Structure formats: structure tokens, C-alpha cells
């Protein structure tokens, strides 16, 4: 087959026109060691700290230790098919995760890949997992309440949008339940929630996801899962990946609630990585920068200034204590970073007080600024009532005779404890919380038997929604207490008609 000279000439001209004289230079190193999720590579002289590196088999790692002879790399994902002698090259990027609306309702791993079997996530936006926290001038003070739906928290340790409130306690004291209930309560509150499960069993995470789905909370929630069977580097980066996903919404003027469950396991994963990288161990074998691990994460929670859109990210980190020791290394670190803590006590939990919040050790450093005017008014004396009740309760165990004033304080304390109890996954709307606390602090419940208080509360809410809907609407819309005379009259009318369960049983037995 003959080719014409003109065709050859045109082909050469086309190739000359498309010729690009720029050379692409890639810095490539060689893997000298691999094992336990860690690799070392020689030849990456210009690698940057936290830079994303690509292995010849397609796996990725992050440059962690920059030493004179080699680079220490944490491998993201499986490392069994990486061998000594493999090539590893710089990408010039730092670790990023997919972000955006497409992730809402999905369960993803710390790399942003779906693990819920519902197909790929279609988003082209990414954000680096590490980002400098907003500065002082980029923030505004926390003033808008974040309603958890739990009376004991909203009344005693209020949380504001943009706050960092630590949930701390021994294992199996209801820490995750408090966080899950708070997420469920955000339905219709214009809030996007992110639940980061670090080192939780896959079956446990599946149960939590099903709970959220059952209450319609997955419609506004992203779940980031790093299970105990996954390599330590994924547990280490999981909270940062969740924070990056939340920042995408925060910087677009939206409100975000992020739960880190729990940071004790992240600290343990980071300790494992650091020891494998031969970093010097410090107290309890943790590396020297363990405080910075959590501070640079939690500082990213903020209420942004109006110039930046006024978005917020509220963080609820969870820390597990050993035998209630909140003076241990990691708990004290995180307590000093956060704006308060909700301390859950084992003894209270096992005695049936749930949520088992210890009012004496729990505190919110934002306080009344994160409460509505109505809640501030009705919860004023609650902490005092509780603490004096605890003291008197201990004193009366000796069986001494009590005067009328002491007896009245004890009675009020018992009822306060009972009112603050709440069933699992039953967060209460703000106006219903306000009404029952108003009834408690104004003495309407003083004659109601302690065992009947939950039934009384449920009946009161139903009665007011039916017979005094205008009062409930007013509290809901204005966040202030309505005309107290009308409210007193409505509560009094219900209380007078309320029949204790014992009286109902006696009536039935007479029949």
C-alpha cells in the first residue's frame, strides 16, 4: 500500500504542532521496609510532611517522619501486597477526602469511600483532612443553643452551636446514647450531623445506623466508620476526615454537629503508629505531640463570623475513662481543650438514673449564653437543688430525725432526679422540657408520688398540646416563658385532675 508524500508531510506537521517540550519530573523512592501499616522509603529527599505518596501497586500512604536517610510512611488501607523494593512516588498533594451533599445519608470509611453497599458517591469536591482552625477574628461568640432533647443537658450543661463539649465516662455508661439522641433531636433543626465511629465494632455501628434510620436521622447524617479490624492509620485519620466533611458545610453558612466516638481509641492508634515509626515514647508510652493530636482537631469547631457566612461546627468528642479516673493523661488533655464536659457516672447509671449525668462534675463553659430565656428561667435552681439533695441523702443514711424544711428539700431533690430521667431515644422538644421543669421548680409536682412522675410528665405534655396549644406555640416560637398566670392555671388544672397509679389500682381492685 503506497502512502502519498503529502500525507506524510501533514502527519509530521501535526506531530510538531502537538509537541510539548515541558518535561514531567517525578520524584520516586524505593521501599526499604514494610510491616504493621508502616513503610520506610529511600530517595524521597523533597517529600513534605503529611504529603500523599503513591505506591507502585496503587495504594497510598502519608509521609509522617522526615528523616535524614529515609521517610517514614503510614499506609492507608491494606499493606500486604506492598513489598520491599517497590517504587513509591510523591503526588505533591496532601491527604484529601470527598465532601459535599452527596455524602449525606451514607456510611463511608475514612478515605471517603462508601461501605454501605449503596453504590458510588457522586461528588467532585474534595477537602484536605488537615486544615488550620479559624482564627480569633474569624469567629464569633457562641450564642445560639443546640438543643439535645435531653432535659439534664439542656437545663444543667447547655451546649451552643460552635461549642466543643466533651462526653466522658467509663465504658457502658451511655456516652454513645447521649450523642445518638442529640443527633435524633436535630430533625427539622437545619443541622447536618456527622458521626465518626473510631474503633467501634462493625455490628455496633450497624445498630447505630439502623437506629438513626428508624428515627429519620440518616436524612441529614454522614457516618464515618473506622473499625477495630482496620489498620491503625485509618483510625488515626478518621476524625480529621469527618472534620473536613463538616467544614465544607460550615464554610457554606450551614450548621454542623460532629461526634467523635471515641478519641481514646484514636489516641491509642496514634501511639501505635508513633512507636512503630520509632518516635520517642513519653508518658504512658504516648508520643510528645499527643496533646496536639486532639487540639488541632477540636479547634476546628467554631461559630464563624457573619462575614464568613455565620456557619458553625459543634463538636461532641467522647472519651472513655478507666474506673472514673478523669485525672488520667488523655482525659485531662481533652478536658483542657474543650469548653466543658458531661461526666457520666457508673453508680448513677446502674442505679437507674439515665442519662447518668453527674451534675457536680459536669460543666458548660458557655453556660447561659447557649440557653433560651425560657430554659434559663426554669433551670435556675436545678443544680443547687440536686447538689443539696445529694449531700442530704448521704447525711440521712444515718437515720437521724429530719425537720420539715430538710424533708421538703429531700422530697424536691427526689422529684428533680426523677424528672431529669429520660428513656432511650426519646428526646423531648424544647417547649415540653420547659413546661415540666417549670412545674417542678414551682412546686406543682411536690405532691405527685415519685413513681408516677414519668406518667405525670407524659400526661401533662398531652394535656397542654390539646388544651393550651397557644401557650406551647408561644414558647416554641418566642423561646420565652408565656404569661405565667395562664401557664400556672393550665398546669394546676391538669395536676388536680391527675390520679396517681396507686389510686387507679385501688379503684380497679374495689371493682
Instruction: Give the strand order, joined by hyphens, for the main sheet.
Output: 8-12-11-13-14-10-15-16
Question: What assembly state would you assign to the polypeptide chains in this entry?
Answer: single chain
Structural class: alpha/beta
As a whole number of angstroms, the C-alpha radius of gyration is 29 Å
In percent terms, what proportion of residues is strand?
15-25%
Mean pLDDT, all residues: 91
Low-confidence stretches: none
- How many beta-strand runs? 16
- Indicate the CATH topology of the largest domain: Rossmann fold
Q: Count the DSSP helices.
A: 17
CATH class of the largest domain: Alpha Beta
Count up the domains: 3
> Which superfamily, in CATH terms, is the homologous superfamily of the largest domain?
P-loop containing nucleotide triphosphate hydrolases
Amino-to-carboxy terminus distance: 112 Å
Subcellular location: Cell membrane; Membrane
InterPro entries: ATP_synth_asu-like_sf, ATP_synth_asu_C, ATP_synth_asu_C_sf, ATP_synth_F1_a_nt-bd_dom, ATP_synth_F1_asu, ATPase_F1/V1/A1_a/bsu_N, ATPase_F1/V1/A1_a/bsu_N_sf, ATPase_F1/V1/A1_a/bsu_nucl-bd
Function: Produces ATP from ADP in the presence of a proton gradient across the membrane. The alpha chain is a regulatory subunit.
Site (Required for activity): 362
From the structure above, extract its key features:
about 500 residues; 3 domains; eight-stranded mixed β-sheet; 17 helices; Elongation Factor Tu (Ef-tu), domain 3; Rossmann fold; 16 strands; Lysin; alpha/beta
Q: What does this protein structure show overall?
A:
- This protein folds into 3 domains: 27-93, Elongation Factor Tu (Ef-tu), domain 3 (Beta Barrel); 98-371, P-loop containing nucleotide triphosphate hydrolases (Rossmann fold, 3-Layer(aba) Sandwich); 378-509, Lysin (Up-down Bundle).
- Helices cover 39% and strands 17% of the residues.
- It has 17 helices and 16 strands.
- It has helices at 5-17, 151-156, 175-184, 202-214, 232-250, 263-276, 290-298, 329-337, 346-350, 373-378, 382-396, 404-420, 430-441, 453-467, 469-478, 484-497, 501-510, and strands at 28-35, 38-42, 51-55, 60-66, 71-76, 87-94, 96-98, 107-108, 126-128, 166-169, 191-198, 221-226, 255-261, 312-320, 340-344, 363-364.
- The N and C termini lie far apart (112 Å).
- It has 511 residues and is α/β, with parallel strands linked by helices.
- The radius of gyration is 29 Å and the shape is elongated.
- Strand 11 (191-198), helix 4 and strand 12 (221-226) form a beta-alpha-beta unit.
- The model has no long low-confidence stretch (mean pLDDT 91).
- Helix 7 (290-298) runs parallel beside helix 8 and helix 11 (382-396) packs across helix 12 (404-420).
Amino acid at each position: 500500500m503506497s502512502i502519498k508524500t503529502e500525507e506524510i508531510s501533514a502527519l509530521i506537521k501535526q506531530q510538531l504542532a502537538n509537541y510539548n517540550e515541558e518535561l514531567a519530573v517525578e520524584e520516586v523512592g524505593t521501599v526499604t521496609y514494610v510491616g504493621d501499616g508502616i513503610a520506610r522509603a529511600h530517595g524521597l529527599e523533597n517529600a513534605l510532611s503529611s504529603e500523599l505518596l503513591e505506591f507502585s501497586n496503587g495504594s497510598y500512604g502519608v509521609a509522617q517522619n522526615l528523616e535524614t536517610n529515609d521517610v517514614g510512611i503510614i499506609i492507608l488501607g491494606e499493606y500486604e501486597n506492598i513489598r520491599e523494593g517497590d517504587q513509591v512516588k510523591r503526588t505533591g498533594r496532601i491527604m484529601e477526602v470527598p465532601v459535599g451533599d452527596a455524602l449525606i445519608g451514607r456510611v463511608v470509611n475514612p478515605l471517603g469511600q462508601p461501605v454501605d453497599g449503596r453504590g458510588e458517591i457522586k461528588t467532585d469536591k474534595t477537602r484536605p483532612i488537615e486544615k488550620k482552625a479559624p482564627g480569633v477574628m474569624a469567629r464569633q461568640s457562641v450564642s445560639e443553643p443546640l438543643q439535645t432533647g435531653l432535659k439534664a443537658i439542656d437545663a444543667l450543661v447547655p451546649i451552643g452551636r460552635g461549642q466543643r463539649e466533651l462526653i466522658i465516662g467509663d465504658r457502658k455508661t451511655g456516652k454513645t446514647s447521649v450523642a445518638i439522641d442529640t443527633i435524633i433531636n436535630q430533625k427539622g433543626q437545619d443541622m447536618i450531623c456527622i458521626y465518626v465511629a473510631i474503633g467501634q465494632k462493625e455490628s455496633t455501628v450497624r445498630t447505630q445506623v439502623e437506629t438513626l434510620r428508624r428515627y429519620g436521622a440518616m436524612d441529614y447524617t454522614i457516618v464515618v466508620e473506622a473499625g477495630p479490624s482496620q489498620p491503625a492509620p485509618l483510625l488515626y485519620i478518621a476524625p480529621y476526615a469527618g472534620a473536613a466533611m463538616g467544614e465544607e458545610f460550615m464554610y457554606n453558612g450551614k450548621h454542623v454537629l460532629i461526634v467523635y466516638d471515641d478519641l481514646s481509641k484514636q489516641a491509642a492508634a496514634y501511639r501505635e503508629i508513633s512507636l512503630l515509626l520509632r518516635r520517642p515514647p513519653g508518658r504512658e508510652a504516648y508520643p510528645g505531640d499527643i496533646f496536639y493530636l486532639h487540639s488541632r482537631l477540636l479547634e476546628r469547631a467554631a461559630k464563624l463570623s457573619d462575614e464568613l457566612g455565620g456557619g458553625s461546627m459543634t463538636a461532641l468528642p467522647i472519651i472513655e475513662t478507666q474506673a472514673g479516673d478523669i485525672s488520667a493523661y488523655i482525659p485531662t488533655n481533652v478536658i483542657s481543650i474543650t469548653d466543658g464536659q458531661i461526666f457520666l457516672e457508673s453508680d448513677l447509671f446502674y442505679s437507674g438514673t439515665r442519662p447518668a449525668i453527674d451534675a457536680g462534675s459536669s460543666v458548660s463553659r458557655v453556660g447561659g449564653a447557649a440557653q433560651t430565656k425560657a430554659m434559663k428561667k426554669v433551670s435556675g435552681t436545678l443544680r443547687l437543688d440536686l447538689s443539696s439533695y445529694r449531700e442530704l441523702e448521704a447525711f440521712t443514711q444515718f437515720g437521724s430525725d429530719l425537720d420539715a424544711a430538710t424533708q421538703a428539700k429531700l422530697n424536691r431533690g427526689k422529684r428533680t432526679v426523677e424528672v431529669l430521667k429520660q428513656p432511650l431515644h426519646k428526646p423531648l422538644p424544647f417547649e415540653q422540657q420547659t413546661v415540666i421543669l417549670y412545674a417542678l421548680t414551682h412546686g406543682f409536682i411536690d405532691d405527685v408520688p415519685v413513681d408516677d412522675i414519668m406518667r405525670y410528665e407524659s400526661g401533662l405534655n398531652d394535656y397542654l398540646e390539646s388544651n393550651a396549644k397557644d401557650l406551647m406555640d408561644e414558647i416554641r416560637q418566642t423561646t420565652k416563658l408565656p404569661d405565667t398566670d395562664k401557664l400556672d392555671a393550665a398546669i394546676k388544672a391538669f395536676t388536680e385532675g391527675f390520679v396517681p397509679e396507686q389510686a387507679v389500682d385501688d379503684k380497679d381492685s374495689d371493682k
